[in-house]
Amino acid sequence: MTTYSIIGLGKLGASMAAAIAKRGFNVIGVDVSQRAVDLVNAGHAPVQETDLEETIAANKERLRATLSRREAVLHSDVSFVIVPTPSDERGAFSLQYVAWAFREIGRALAEKKDYHLVVLTSTVLPGSTRYGLLPILEQESGKVAGRDFGLCYSPEFIALGSVIHDFLNPDFTLVGELDERSGSFLEACYAEIMENHPPCKRMSIENAELTKIAVNTFVTT
Fold it and tell me: Mean pLDDT over residues 97-125, rounded?
């Protein structure tokens, strides 16, 4: 059975971790906050979100948290990266926190013999994953993406206040794949996790990044 790590335990990350655990999978949550880690390990929600406290409490035997990205990567098969990408002075999305997470993941991949899939979920501008973040993984791991590990960009379309429900029952899942193996692995994961059997839309990483921006713009407008 696939084990998941969720890097970033904010409203979306914590809710995804709880939802995946609810579906019967082992999940390792990672956060820079000791308080968030302690709360999850005690069976409590690290943030306020509908049904989160109850879902974590009901599935705490399958959900644990740690401060160590290395530990999470070494003991899971798929890592979702859901860290903040705040606007910078140019109005673009800052990759500062994502880059830090990818450096730690890359170092862990250097120690790992098995194939591992890294999935970026945070909102970024088109081109960020392939040209800004993929090189970090390869440099830190000494491995080649697509051959030694997988990479996808796969954002979620959720509303605060109904994150768990929206994550498990999406209109569709969006998979931006580096290669066929990465995309097929993530599609198979979503098929097991989602409750409503949604269609999976697979495309290039850049097209998925653009689709996320487009949908957000449409909804906001």
Answer: 95
